[in-house]
Amino acid sequence: MPDLDVAVIGAGAAGLSVTAIAAGLGLKVALFERGAMGGDCLNFGCVPSKALLAAARAAAEARRAHRFGLRLPEPEIDWDGVREHVAGAIATIAPNDSEERFRAMGATVVRATARFVARDTIEGGGRRFTFRRAVVAAGSAAVVPPIPGLAGLPFLTNESLFSLRERPGHLIILGGGPIGLEMAQAHARLGCRVTVLEAARIAGREEAECLPPLRAALEADGVALHEGARIVAAEPDAQGIAVLLEDGTRIAGTHLLLAVGRAPRLDGLGLEAAGIAHTSRGVTTDLALRSVSNRRVWAAGDIADPQGLGPRAFTHVCSQHAGIIARAMLFRLPAKLSYAALPRVTYTDPEIAQIGPTEAELRAAGREDLTILRWPLAENDRLVAEGRAEGLVKLVTDRKGRLLGASVVGPGAGDMAGMFALMIGRRLPLSALAGAVLPYPTAQEAGKRAASEFYTPKFLAPGTKRIVGLLNRLP
After folding, report:
1. In whole angstroms, what is the distance from residue 71 CA to residue 161 CA?
2. For a tag on the chain, would you pick the N or C end, based on fewer CB atoms within 10 A?
3. Which residues bind FAD (predicted)?
């Protein structure tokens, strides 16, 4: 008999979710983790970044209080206090991901590096474990680009950024994606000089119509944005570090943060020994997240590459993967991954939320039967009252009124994402949202108003007016 029913490599969001489900069902489970329990999300990603953003937002609100007739002094940034807030957020959530909690569930927790040594065997902590099923959930790490001179310099990634004991004087950020932009705004609001260098355009995956409010907000906070900036070298500088651009510009700063992307943690897993097919994008799986070459093995989270769809480095995708694996691996039920309704959010101020594909992605896929609906947040009473009415809701539907994708930029855009994800995932017609009774005043009303725009032309058409005129003559 195998030692384990399920072996899980990685105690991040995906691995913890799979372990909790399997252990809860009474299976023999071992969870292998060489680093901190909770993985990137808890220790170096979602939790500390959102805690830092919250502190930065408080500073920004103090500076903007004059809009409401309040006169406050420039906030004094206590960097040690900010760091304590971030550490406190991690410490408060950590028990949910702790070794003790998962041992109490009945799982064996092995705090050591794990690697495959055969198709059905994992080695970790000085022991070998045979298994019926295994889940690779080793996550991802920040990409270090091959820039000449960079390797010998003290650059930062998300794993080292939050442990800085002193506030950066001038933080240079390579990469204008979600991590780069969130950390740029947070540090700028906390009194740092910040420069963002992006080889293409910032927020390159997001709806282009959503970018003007974001650019304006970042620049208002003091972030220097350099789009189309190609870096050719890095070198030491009296301040700390400098980068050289293709056009000859030299930018020096005290700290350099790399935020140009993520790569799956494949090294050291012994995937070859287990016959697990993989590429630089991750473990190759089918849409049930099962390895295409070793049917005992599944992959989840950042390390999974299902049928070439590529990894999706989001904690909520880890939860989605865990649910699919539970159905397919544990209950032997049909399960199929789909990202058609996948939401993602960049938690800047304003936030950008994308649910499903953008208009450009749909057109690139050959969809021409599209209807575009927009509603400006300047028309939203709640946001007008709060002095934050900059942004847009954009919906992309087919000609029958089925929502295909949604883009939102504005305060609380992420809070609207769930509404649109539900509509796309459940294939609800726009009439479900247009006819919903939402509380007034809320920002979500902008989504309803955008959906109502699909029916307005029909409602006000000449034929409709004639019918109403005839009905009005009836007694």
Report:
1. 33
2. C
3. 50, 302
Residue with tokens 């304003």: 350
| 179 assigned ligand-binding residue | yes
| DSSP letters for 128-169 | EEEEEEEEE---EEE-----TT-TTS--B-HHHHTT-SS--S
Q: Is 225 annotated as a binding residue?
A: no
Residue 383: burial class (beta carbons within 10 Å; 0-12, 13-18, 19+): buried
| 353 in the same domain as 252 | no
- Does 302 carry a binding-site annotation? yes
pLDDT of amino acid 474? 84
418 is in an annotated binding site: no
CA dist 257 and 161 (Å) reads 8
pLDDT at 322: 97
Q: Is 237 exposed, middle or buried (0-12, 13-18, 19+ CB in 10 A)?
A: middle
Looking at the fold, whether 362 and 437 belong to one and the same domain comes out as yes
At 195, which helix (H) or strand (E)? strand 193-198
**Count of domains for the chain:** 3
Does 387 appear as a known binding residue?
Answer: no
50 marked as binding residue? yes
Mean pLDDT split into 10-residue runs, the chain, 475 residues: 97 98 98 97 97 98 96 96 98 97 98 98 97 98 96 95 96 98 98 98 96 97 97 96 96 98 97 97 97 98 92 93 97 95 97 97 94 97 96 96 97 95 95 95 96 84 78 81
DSSP state of 347: -
78 Cβ partners below 8 Å, 6+ apart? none
182 labelled binding-site residue: yes
Q: Given this model, what pLDDT does residue 308 score? A: 81
pLDDT of residue 22: 97
My answer on whether 137 and 10 are in the same domain is yes
Q: What is the DSSP letter of 429?
A: B
31 marked among binding-site residues: no
Domain that holds residue 177: 158-261
Tell me if 198 is assigned to a ligand binding site: yes
